[in-house]
Specification:
The chain is built from 21 helices and 21 strands. It folds into three domains: 2-69; 75-244, Penicillin-binding protein 2a (Domain 2), CATH 3.90.1310; 332-606, DD-peptidase/beta-lactamase superfamily (Beta-lactamase, 3-Layer(aba) Sandwich). The strands form six sheets. Strands 2, 3, 4, 5, 8, 16 and 17 form a seven-stranded mixed sheet that branches. A five-stranded antiparallel sheet has the order 10-9-21-20-19, with helices on both faces.
């Protein structure tokens, strides 16, 4: 009986345990189900949010990425704007139509790759193995040749047709920069690189105006770059660059270059030379000639026969140095010591301040030199002193002591205020790249001796463009006019002409002072050191200059600055020759002034409605 009770209790406990387990299992399944539903809802919500973010936040971006992945775009260059001379008729730079060749390797049949590579290498004179590598790549597009003449591309078209090669080789429109006058105004215009980007001169300075906007050819492709459909190519036109009208007169530029080259060769100017011709009233630069110069159509090879003969023996570094020399526009970039031409500035300041006048007979006396702060500074003609002189005679004779004395009377502060007004303490702002500036002692460091040397044009340096601009202020009645090389820009789409205004700064000297200095400059050419600059029928004013090129170098800089006609100046000219070593010597009156005479005589068309010599 007891065993039955024990068994009964045992079965009861087992039954209760099963009920508990059954109840617990049911709860666990429900909980798991709830958890699974929660997780599923959470995952679904995250996916919905993610899809929404992708669709609405990154939709455009991903669409563009997909478009890019399935399209192939070949860009082609626009025509750069044409560069004209001041007449608007003579073309100095123009873009000619050429073509470029590219390949889509994946669209060229395997059995055609070798013969395509062979033909391309022969036609465009490119190494066969190089072309074969490009043709065999797994890329969508490879460049083969740029700026190819139509004659060669037409031959390629014919060959492709004959060999039934219809896809994979592209011939697209391209442009090539061409300079009709070769070396004319090379250091002003500059040139372009292989990608049609302006590298020097106007081409570089006005890149944004000239370059235009590239066009493109687009087609749909698969992941490997193969054609995706038969819709063909979408052609997007290029926008040509704007045209530019320079202030440069091609005729005058040519005259200046001709006589500069002759002068540098005849006088054996070891460091070359430059000429600037400017309209003093508008600031228009009519010519900037530099020697040596270079051929714009082949700018990487020198024109100098001696240098060209030895060219292959130079290292890459030496070649680059020589190129930089001929590309450099020294008239804009390099400073020099002006010498006696700077006496015009001292004379202008002295007259403006009322310290002296032009024709006070015997006001000054040259004894062969002058002592300043214990230092004896000689006149260039110390061996035969000029004796009693007026200011006019002192300028005519280029007498150093007179101008040293005027500098002392003006004082450092006043003199430096005129340097500022005449634009010598800052760059001119000419619209050409690489403009340099002057080298002067700081005002607080200038003593009596330093002021004395500055007053007659030594122991400091200025750029030729600063000098011609200052003399133009004297010539135009006393106003500082900013020099420029570009007069207008013509919109390539509309033809609208955007003319540049003449930029003027503060008045430098009065009209009265301007007339007095011009009168003295006329005397310099009529009777003084500038006699060789005379031109029959025209009143020419000017000043010669000779200075050392550095201290104790044994080199000289020879110059002449002039204006014509004196009654109503239409032109200012500055000739600067670096280290003339020929038999003619190195004096400005003997070497530089005759060049001015020839150039002014042959540029007489500038003197429209001008008065002739009385």
């Amino acid at each position: 009986m007891s065993n039955i009770r024990k068994l009964s209790k045992k079965m009861k406990k087992k039954k209760e345990k099963c009920k508990f387990v059954e109840k617990t299992g049911t709860l666990t399944r429900k909980k798991r189900l709830k958890n699974m539903i929660f997780v599923s809802v959470l995952i679904f919500s995250i996916l919905v949010i993610r899809i929404g973010w992708i669709q609405f936040k990154r939709g455009n971006e991903l669409q563009n990425m997909a478009y890019i992945q399935h399209t192939m775009e070949r860009s082609f260059n626009p025509k750069r704007g044409t560069i004209y001379d001041a007449t608007g008729k003579k073309i100095l730079a123009v873009s000619a139509s050429t073509e470029s060749v590219t390949v889509n390797p994946v669209n060229i049949k395997k059995e055609d790759k070798e013969k395509v590579a062979k033909k391309l290498s022969e036609l465009f004179d490119i190494d066969y193995e190089t072309v074969l590598k490009r043709v065999s790549k797994k890329s969508s597009i490879e460049n083969i040749a740029k700026k190819v003449d139509n004659e060669k591309t037409n031959e390629l078209r014919k060959w492709l047709k004959e060999n039934n090669i219809l896809t994979g080789v592209n011939i697209d429109v391209d442009t090539k920069r061409y300079y009709p006058y070769n070396s004319l105004a090379s250091q002003i215009i500059g040139f372009c690189g292989s990608d049609n980007q302006g590298l020097m001169g106007i081409e570089s300075k006005y890149e944004n105006e000239l370059k235009g906007k590239s066009g493109s050819i687009v087609k749909m492709t698969d992941a490997r770059g193969g054609n995706l459909d038969d819709k063909g190519e979408q052609y997007i036109d290029a926008t040509d660059g704007n045209d530019i009208i320079l202030s440069i007169d091609a005729t005058i530029q040519g005259i200046a270059e001709k006589y500069l080259e002759e002068a540098c060769i005849d006088n054996v100017c070891t460091d070359g030379g430059n000429i600037i011709i400017m309209n003093p009233k508008t600031g228009d630069i009519l010519a900037i000639a530099g020697y040596p110069n270079y051929n714009l159509n082949d700018p990487f090879v020198p024109m100098n026969e001696e240098l060209r003969a030895n060219w292959e023996n130079l290292t890459p570094e030496q070649k680059n140095l020589e190129r930089q020399k001929i590309w450099r526009n020294k008239a804009i970039s390099d400073a020099y010591e002006p010498g006696s031409t700077f006496k015009l500035i001292t004379a202008s300041a002295a007259l403006e301040e009322g310290i002296t006048d032009t024709d006070n007979s015997g006001e000054f006396c040259c004894t062969g030199g002058i002592t300043i702060a214990g230092v004896r500074i000689k006149c260039w003609r110390y061996y035969r002193p000029h004796g009693p002189e007026s200011l006019r005679e002192a300028l005519m004779n280029s007498c150093n002591p007179v101008f040293i004395g005027l500098g002392q009377k003006l004082g450092v502060h006043t003199y430096y205020s005129y340097l500022q007004k005449f634009g010598f303490l800052q760059s001119t702002g000419v619209d050409l790249p690489g403009e340099g500036t002057s080298i002067f002692l700081k005002e607080e460091k200038v003593g009596p001796v330093e002021l004395g040397t500055i007053a007659f044009g030594q122991r400091f340096e200025i750029t030729p463009i600063q000098m011609i601009t200052a003399v133009s202020a004297i010539a135009n009645g006393g106003e500082y006019v900013v020099p420029r090389t570009v007069k207008a820009i013509v919109n390539s789409k509309t033809g609208e002409v955007r003319e540049f205004e003449v930029k003027k700064k503060d008045r430098v000297i009065s009209e009265e002072t301007s007339k007095k200095v011009l009168s003295m400059m006329e005397t310099v050419v009529a009777e003084g050191t500038g006699k060789n600059a005379q031109v029959d029928g025209y009143s020419i004013g000017g000043k010669t200059g000779t200075s050392e090129d550095g201290v104790n170098t044994g080199k000289y800089v020879t110059s002449f600055v002039g204006v014509a006609p004196v009654d109503d100046p239409q032109i200012a000219i500055l000739i600067t020759l670096y280290n003339p070593t020929g038999e003619g010597g190195h004096q400005g009156g003997g070497v530089a002034a005759p060049i001015a005479s020839e150039i002014l005589r042959r540029s007489s068309t500038i003197f429209r409605n001008c008065k002739t010599t009385k």
